[in-house]
Amino acid sequence: MAQCDFYQQQMSLFLSGMLNEEETARLNEHLSLCTSCSEEMTSIKALWAELDAITIEEPSAGMQASFNAILKNYKEDIGSRKNIFIKWNTRIKQLWQLQPRLQLAYSLLMVIVGIGMGYYLSNKPNVNESATKDQINSLALQVTDMQRTLMVTLLENPSASERIRAVNYTNEINKADIKIIQALLATLNNDPNVNVRLATLEALTKFAREPNVREGLVQSIQHQESPIVQTAIAELMVKLQEKRSVKPLQQLLNKKDVDELVKAKIKESLHQLI
Amino acid sequence: MEIFSDNTLMLQVKEGDLDKMGLLFQRHHQALYGFLYRMTGQKEQSEDLVQNVFFRMLKYRHAFAGSGEFKTWMYHVARNALSDHFKRSGKKKSVYELSVVENKVMAEHRSDAMIESRQNRQLLEKAMNSLSNENKELLILCRFQELKYKEVATILNINEGAVKVRVHRALSELKNIYQQLSNK
């Protein structure tokens, strides 16, 4: 009987309180009609009631107290954990407050300054290199100009030793310009002091490669009266192998007031030149 | 003093008012102890488990959503604690140890009727322990814990229809075992 199977299931549900009023009414109706189900219901109801007999031991009276103790411990545990957290937090904050804040700021500043300097120094030469070179060149020019002016001024000095010093300045000038050579040649021809003229001759030797210097030297042969200077020029002409000096030197030989020793020297020089 | 619902109290615990857990313990520890005792059959272990369950609820209070009932949550936690307990003790099935109760009862009232009822009870207990843990648990929840079957369904994570089918099956099985034991 399929119907009875269904109601037997309903019995269990009835006992465990799972049936509503309508379902309970239908179950009771079936039980009043079906004897076997009614008997089944009686036995299962008895079993259900008997389960009550399974008693349990009463729990200890101290359970609530035990749990209250657990609860208290737990609260304290959480509290101390919070305290530890707060303690560490403040400690870290203090650490931050004490020293490193200023130091760190200072370090950062220095790093930034360093980086800035690095950029400045590495970029600046690239931008201004040509300008710097120009500056140096112009400064060098100014120095040369000053030396030249100084020399020309000094050559007019009444003291012979000052004039020699002026001539020696030309050693520091590598590239002779026209003004200096003219000043030197004028000194060679006109200076009253023999020593000054010798020094000038020496200075001019340095510029002997310049054609106008050679020409000036050749022309100055006639103007020289001092035997020492005459000899020196003659030697220089030989050294330079200057053929144009032959004619002035021969004219010098014909002069009456020329020293015999000088004449001998000139003759020797002429011999070498021709 | 206003009487708060279980859920209200548990939500207060969740928000930090931990003392309210003491109140919940007061309300529910007896019922929970009954469930655990019937499942394990041992007094001290059941008491420890009750403390364990309430401590777990305290510790994992943030897991309480508040959408479900506190009571069903409590049984969920209890079932987990129980399963851990069974794993640890290595016992799939527990044995009722009712000798203490029985001896007390026997010493006080000795009569034929009492002896007969005691025998019946022992048979019933034996029958209960013969059931599978699932059926035993289901019957305990339905018979002793004063839970609605909806709550039982929630605790066992099954739908209400499944509860109905299983309750009948469990009860039939218990009846058969009991009859077999009685006829011996």
What does this 3D model show about the protein?
The complex is a heterodimer of chains A (274) and B (184). Chain A has 12 helices and no strands. Chain A has 274 residues and is an all-alpha fold. In chain A, helix 8 runs parallel beside helix 10. Chain B is mainly α. Chain B folds into 2 domains: 6-89, RNA polymerase sigma factor, region 2, helix turn helix motif (Rna Polymerase Sigma Factor, Chain: A); 99-183, Winged helix-like DNA-binding domain superfamily/Winged helix DNA-binding domain (Arc Repressor Mutant, subunit A). Chain B has helices spanning 6-14, 20-40, 43-59, 70-89, 99-108, 112-130, 133-144, 149-156, 160-183. Chain B is elongated.
Which features would summarize this protein structure in a list?
heterodimer, A: 274 residues, mainly alpha, 0% strand, rod-shaped, B: 184 residues, Rna Polymerase Sigma Factor, Chain: A, Arc Repressor Mutant, subunit A, 2 domains, 76% helix, elongated
For CATH, the homologous superfamily of the largest domain in chain B is named as: Winged helix-like DNA-binding domain superfamily/Winged helix DNA-binding domain
What name does the CATH topology of the largest domain in chain B carry? Arc Repressor Mutant, subunit A
- The rounded distance between the terminal residues' Cα atoms of chain A is 165 Å
Counting H and I runs of at least 4 residues, what is the number of helices of chain B? Answer: 9
Uncertain segments of chain B are: 92-100
**What order do the SSEs of chain A take from the amino end to the carboxyl end, as H and E?**
HHHHHHHHHHHH
- Contiguous uncertain segments of 5+ residues of chain A: none
Inertia-based shape of chain B:
elongated
Radius of gyration of chain A: 65 Å
Distance between the ends of chain B: 58 Å
